[in-house]
Write a structure and sequence with these properties.
The complex is a heterodimer of chains A (732) and B (184).
Chain A: H1 3-22, E1 28-29, E2 45-51, E3 60-66, E4 69-75, H2 88-92, H3 94-97, E5 107-109, E6 118-120, H4 123-139, E7 146-150, H5 155-168, E8 172-175, H6 182-192, E9 199-200, E10 207-211, H7 222-234, E11 242-246, H8 252-255, E12 259-261, H9 268-281, H10 287-292, H11 297-303, H12 309-316, H13 320-332, E13 336-340, H14 342-345, H15 350-363, E14 373-374, H16 387-398, E15 404-407, H17 411-414, H18 421-427, E16 430-433, H19 440-444, E17 447-448, E18 459-461, E19 470-475, H20 488-499, H21 502-506, H22 512-523, H23 532-542, E20 544-547, E21 581-586, H24 600-603, E22 612-613, E23 618-620, H25 622-628, E24 635-639, E25 644-651, E26 659-663, E27 702-710, E28 716-717
Helix pairs in contact in A: 4-20, 5-20, 6-15, 9-12, 9-13, 9-15, 16-18
Chain B: H1 13-39, H2 57-63, H3 68-71, H4 86-93, H5 101-111, E1 118-119, H6 132-137, H7 143-146, H8 163-172, H9 179-182
Helix pairs in contact in B: 4-5
Classes of the chains: A alpha/beta (732), B mainly alpha (184).
Chain lengths: 732, 184
C-alpha cells in the first residue's frame, strides 16, 4: 500500500467515524399518527375478561391490553374451571394475534391445488365467490352436496352452524376432532344412562387410579385437573391423596404418580377386571352401592372367574403382587376414583375396557359422591359426530356426492390419512377454509376467508366437563382487528343473508354479536330493574355466566348391565413379526393436536419428560434401543403398515420396551414460518382398519418397526444440545 | 513523477520544525473542539441528538408559553408523559407557520402516514419503574428533571439520570427510598 492509498483510507475511516458520531444511538420515540379515541392512556394497562378457545377445556382468561395492544394473558380468578390458572398453551394464544404469517385478507387460489399459490382478493369478491357457489348448488337442487367440517362446537357457534346447514338443506355437517371425547360420551351413555361427559372429582378423592388418562396434560380439562390434583395432594391437612397410573408410557401425569404400572397396551380392561375380582373376592367392595346399582356379588364373581391374578398378571405384563396391592389400596381407601383415558380409548377393545374401569367406580361406591364420579358434568354438550360419520362423509366425497366443503379448523393435518379424508377432499371441486393462518387445510383450499384471531372475536365458550357448575364463558375482542379478517360465524351469516329465502329467515339477527347477546339473554338472570345492557356489560366484565351448582345431585345409577364387560384380545394393525413395536401417539403439552405448532413460545417449550424442543422425536426404551443399535439423537425410521417417517430417537426409560411413542403436533406442510416443515406428523403412520374389520379410531393400535438411519438426528434437548439450533433465542 | 518516496535529505531542519509545530496546532485545535462539544450542550449523540424535525421547545414552551401538559397530556395520569400524535401537531400547524420548511417536513410525514421518528432523550431502563403521574401529583415542577426546557432550541438532557440522583431528591422530599418503590 502506498502513502496516498493509506491517507485516502484513513480519511474515509475518519469521516465514517465522524458521521456515525452524529447519529444518535438512543431509542426512537414513535408517536401515534392519530391518537386513539377510546380513551387509551399510554402506559396504563386495561384488563379484559375473555375465554380461551385453544382447547375444548374453555378456561377463563384475563388479557392485559396496553396502548391498544394485547400484552399478556393470565387465568380469570372468577372462572370456575381454571380459577385464575392458565396453561402454557393458553398463554401462547397471544402469539396467534400477532403472528407474522397471518392471512391478512381473503385469498383465492391461482395455481394448482396444494401448492400455495394464492391471490389476495377483497371481502366482496371472496363472499361473492362463496355465495355464487352456494347459489349454484341450490339452483341445481344439489343442496345436499354441501358439507361443513368443524371441530366439536358448542354454544351459539354450534347453533349457528346447525341452522346454516339445515336452512341450506344439507345434513352433511361433521363435528369431529381427533382428540374428541366421543368414546367417553358413549361410555357414559351406556354405563350411566347419561348422554354427556362425566365430571371426575379429583380434588376430593383419596385414591386416584388413572388408566391412561393424562389429566395434567390434555385430558378433558387439564388446567382444572392440574388444580384439582394439587388439592388432592396438599389441600387437606391429614390426607395426601394417593395416585396410581396405568399406561405403557410415562407421561407427565404418570411421572406425578406414586406408582407407575406400565401395562401392556390394550390390556387395561383386563387389569380392571382382575382388580374387580380381587375386590369382590376379598369382600372389600361397597355393599350398599352394589345393591343400589342392581349388581350381585355372586353373579359378578361367576363372570370374573377367568380373571384370576396369574392370568391377569400374564396378560398385562405386571407383577401379581403389584396388582393385588393396588386393588386392595383402591378398595380400602374411600373415596377412590378410577378414570380411563385415551390410551385405553383408542384401542380395538375400547368399549369393554372403559366399562370395566367404570365398574371399579361402582364397586367402591363413588357414584354421585364427593371424590367420585358425577356422570353429568354441569355444562351442556354440543352436537358431535362419531368416527363412523367421518368415514361415511369420506365415502360420499369419494363418490362425487359432495361438491363444496366449508372447513373450519385444520382436519387435513389432524385427521389420520388412513381415513382417506385428505385424498377425498382433493376430489371435491370447491373447498373453502376459514383458517387465520395458511395451515395444511387452507393450503388445499380454493378460497380462504380468514377468521379473526381469538383475541379479536366475540363468542361463547362452554367448557368441556371441567366443572359441575353451569358455565357459559364469554369471549370479547380485546383489540381492534389487526388485519382485514372477519369472524367465521359472521361470514356464514352474511352468506345466509345473501342467499335469502329460508336462510335469511333462519338468522333474524343483524350480526353474530346480536345472536350471541340474544342467547346470553336467555341464560342470564336479569336482576330487578336493571336492563339487559347493564347485565351484559357486567357479564363481560366477569367473563361469562357462572351459575354455582346448588348442590343438586342427579342420582345416576349403573346401567351397564349385570354382565361382565369382557374385553376382547386387543388387535393391532401390522403383524408382530414384521412390526414388533407398539406405537403410541400422544398430544404433547405444547401443541395439543397440532394447533399450537405455529406459536414460537410453544415451539420453545421443552417437553417436560424429554426436554426436547423444536421438532419431533420418538421415545424408545434403552433396552430396545440397545438391541436395535440406536443411541441418543440418532435419526431413525419408524415404519408402520401405512407409511414411514424419519425422526430423531430419544432414549427414554419411561416407556415399555415393546413400545415407542411420538408426540403429535409437528409435521405441518405450512402454517407459518415456525411450524413449516418442522418435525413429522405421526398420524400418517396410523391405520384405521385392523385385520379386515370395519374402520375404527384405534389410534393406539398400530404396530411399527424402527430402524437406525444415521447419527444425524438433529435433536435439541437440554441435556444433549447437539443438533442444529433453529432459534436465535436458544444458545446452549 | 517516477517515484513516490520522499528524499529526506531535501527536507531541511527549518521545514521540519514547521511541520512539527503545524501538527501540534492541529492537535490542540482538535482537543479544543472536543472539549467545547463536551462542555457545551452540543452533544449530538446522547444528550442532545439531532431530531428528524428541528422542533423548538423554546418557541413553543418559551416564547408562546404553551403549558407542558398541553402536549404531554398523559403525565398526570400515566407512567409515561406521552408525546403528541402527528395529528395533534398538524391540527395547530394547519393554521400556524404553514410555510416554514420544518412544518412542511411535518406535513410530509402526515401525508405519507408516517409517524415522526423522534429520538428519545430521557429514559430509564426496564428495571426502573418511573411513574410520571406520581411526581406530577406530588407537585414537582417538570423542570426539576427536564431542566429549563423553555429555553432550549433543541431538547437536551440536563441531568444525569443515575440512582444516586433519584435518591437525593427522594430523601429531600421524604419520599420512599425502599428498593421496591422503583425496582418492581
Amino acid at each position: 500500500m502506498d502513502r496516498r492509498t493509506f491517507l485516502q483510507l484513513g480519511g474515509i475511516t475518519a469521516a465514517g467515524a465522524l458521521l456515525a458520531g452524529c447519529k444518535s444511538a438512543n431509542e426512537k420515540l414513535i408517536p401515534y399518527l392519530v391518537p386513539p379515541d377510546e380513551g387509551v392512556t399510554p402506559g396504563r394497562a386495561e384488563y379484559y375478561a375473555s375465554s380461551c378457545r385453544f382447547c375444548p377445556a374453555g378456561c377463563g382468561i384475563l388479557v392485559r391490553v396496553s396502548e391498544g395492544r394485547a400484552k399478556k394473558i393470565e387465568g380469570n380468578p372468577l372462572h370456575p374451571v381454571n380459577r385464575g390458572k392458565l396453561c402454557a398453551r393458553g398463554q401462547a394464544t397471544l402469539q396467534e394475534l400477532y403472528h407474522p404469517d397471518r392471512i391478512t385478507q381473503p385469498l383465492k387460489r391461482t395455481g394448482a391445488r396444494g401448492f400455495g399459490e394464492f391471490k389476495k382478493i377483497s371481502w366482496e369478491e371472496g363472499l361473492d365467490l362463496l355465495t355464487s357457489n352456494l347459489k349454484i348448488l341450490k339452483q341445481e337442487k344439489a343442496a345436499g352436496s354441501l358439507a361443513l367440517l368443524t371441530p366439536e362446537l358448542r354454544g351459539t357457534l354450534a347453533e349457528l352452524t346447525t341452522r346454516f346447514m339445515r336452512s341450506f338443506g344439507s345434513t352433511q355437517h361433521l363435528s369431529y376432532e381427533l382428540l374428541g371425547f366421543d368414546w367417553l360420551r358413549a361410555a357414559d351413555r351406556r354405563n350411566f344412562g347419561q348422554a354427556g361427559l362425566p365430571f371426575y372429582d379429583v380434588a376430593e378423592t383419596r385414591y386416584l387410579l388413572s388408566f391412561g388418562a393424562d389429566i395434567v396434560e390434555s385430558y378433558l380439562s387439564p388446567v382444572q385437573y392440574g388444580y384439582a390434583f394439587g388439592r388432592m395432594r396438599q389441600a387437606r391437612d391429614t390426607v395426601r391423596g394417593h395416585f396410581t397410573y396405568v399406561g405403557g408410557r410415562m407421561s407427565l401425569t404418570a411421572a406425578s404418580a406414586d406408582r407407575w404400572m406400565p401395562a401392556r397396551p390394550g390390556s387395561e380392561g383386563v387389569l380392571a377386571l382382575g382388580m374387580a375380582r380381587l375386590i369382590l373376592a376379598e369382600s372389600l367392595y361397597d355393599k350398599a352401592a352394589l345393591a343400589a346399582n342392581g349388581l350381585h356379588v355372586e353373579d359378578l364373581l361367576k363372570g370374573l372367574t377367568s380373571y384370576d391374578l396369574p392370568r391377569v398378571a400374564e396378560q398385562t405384563g405386571l407383577s401379581q403382587a403389584a396388582i393385588a396391592e393396588v386393588a386392595r389400596e383402591f378398595a380400602m381407601t374411600r373415596p377412590a376414583l378410577a378414570m380411563a383415558g385415551e390410551a385405553v380409548a383408542f384401542q380395538s377393545n375400547v368399549s369393554e375396557s372403559i366399562q370395566a374401569v367404570q365398574m371399579l367406580n361402582v364397586l367402591v361406591g363413588n357414584l354421585n359422591k364427593p371424590g367420585g364420579i358425577y356422570p353429568d358434568a354441569g355444562s351442556p354438550d354440543g352436537p358431535t359426530n362419531s368416527f363412523d360419520e367421518l368415514i361415511s362423509l369420506v365415502e360420499k366425497m369419494r363418490g362425487d356426492q359432495i361438491r363444496t366443503v366449508l372447513i373450519y379448523g385444520d382436519p387435513v393435518h389432524t385427521i389420520p390419512q388412513a381415513t382417506g379424508l385428505q385424498d377425498a377432499l382433493a376430489k371435491v371441486p370447491f373447498l373453502v377454509s376459514f383458517s387465520s393462518l395458511l395451515d395444511d387445510t387452507a393450503l388445499m383450499a380454493d378460497l380462504v376467508l380468514p377468521d379473526h384471531a381469538a383475541l379479536e372475536s366475540w363468542g361463547d365458550v362452554i367448557p368441556l366437563a371441567g366443572t359441575r357448575e353451569g358455565v357459559i364463558g364469554l369471549m370479547q375482542p380485546v383489540v381492534t382487528p389487526v388485519f382485514d379478517t372477519r369472524q367465521f360465524p359472521e361470514v356464514l351469516m352474511t352468506a345466509a343473508n345473501e342467499l335469502g329465502g329460508d336462510m335469511k329467515v333462519a338468522f333474524p339477527y343483524p350480526s353474530y354479536l346480536e345472536m350471541l347477546r340474544a342467547d346470553v339473554k336467555k341464560h342470564a338472570v336479569v336482576s330487578g330493574s336493571t336492563d339487559f345492557e347493564a347485565t351484559w356489560v357486567d357479564l363481560l366484565r366477569k367473563g361469562g355466566i357462572f351459575k354455582p351448582n346448588a348442590g343438586q345431585v342427579n342420582g345416576y345409577k349403573w346401567s351397564g348391565g349385570t354382565k361382565i364387560p369382557e374385553p376382547a384380545k386387543p388387535r393391532f394393525a401390522g403383524s408382530e413379526k414384521e412390526f414388533p413395536l407398539h406405537l403410541s401417539v400422544y398430544p404433547c403439552t405444547a401443541f395439543f393436536d397440532g394447533r399450537g405448532a405455529p406459536l414460537p413460545w410453544l415451539q420453545q417449550l421443552p417437553d417436560p419428560m424429554t426436554t426436547a424442543v423444536w421438532g419431533s422425536w420418538v421415545e424408545i426404551n434403552p433396552k430396545t434401543a440397545a438391541e436395535l443399535g440406536i443411541s441418543f439423537g440418532d435419526l431413525v425410521e419408524v415404519a408402520s403398515p401405512q407409511a414411514s417417517l424419519r425422526v430423531p430417537a430419544v432414549i427414554f426409560p419411561g416407556i415399555r420396551p415393546d413400545m415407542v411413542a411420538i408426540p403429535l403436533g409437528q409435521g405441518h406442510r405450512e402454517m407459518g414460518r415456525y411450524a413449516r416443515e418442522r418435525g413429522a406428523n405421526p398420524l400418517v403412520l396410523l391405520a384405521t382398519i385392523i385385520e379386515g374389520s370395519a374402520p375404527q379410531p384405534a389410534w393406539h393400535a398400530t404396530r411399527v418397526r424402527v430402524t437406525r438411519i444415521s447419527e444425524k438426528g438433529e435433536l435439541v434437548t437440554a441435556g444433549h444440545p447437539q443438533g442444529s439450533y433453529r432459534s436465535d433465542l436458544i444458545e446452549i | 513523477m517516477i517515484g513516490t518516496s520522499i528524499d529526506f535529505s531535501l527536507v531541511d531542519s527549518m521545514k521540519l520544525t514547521w511541520l512539527i509545530s503545524g501538527l501540534f496546532i492541529v492537535l490542540i485545535a482538535f482537543l479544543a473542539v472536543f472539549a467545547f462539544i463536551y462542555i457545551l450542550p452540543l452533544d449530538l449523540r446522547d444528550r442532545s441528538p439531532i431530531q428528524p424535525i428541528s422542533f423548538s421547545h423554546k418557541k413553543h414552551a418559551g416564547d408562546n408559553d404553551i403549558p407542558c401538559l398541553f402536549c404531554h397530556r398523559y403525565a398526570p395520569k400515566s407512567t409515561v408523559a406521552g408525546i403528541p400524535a402527528v395529528a395533534d401537531c398538524r391540527a395547530c400547524h394547519l393554521f400556524i407557520a404553514q410555510n416554514s420548511p420544518e412544518i412542511k417536513k411535518l406535513m410530509t410525514y402526515w401525508e405519507n402516514k408516517q409517524p415522526i421518528p423522534w429520538i428519545r432523550v430521557y429514559g430509564v431502563p426496564d428495571f426502573v419503574y418511573f411513574p410520571h403521574m406520581m411526581h406530577i401529583r406530588a407537585g414537582l415542577d417538570c423542570g426539576t428533571c427536564h431542566g429549563n426546557v423553555a429555553a432550549m432550541e433543541r431538547i437536551t438532557r440536563s441531568v444525569k439520570i443515575k440512582m444516586g440522583w433519584c435518591l437525593n431528591c427522594h430523601r429531600q422530599h421524604k419520599a420512599s427510598i425502599d428498593c421496591w418503590t422503583c425496582h418492581k
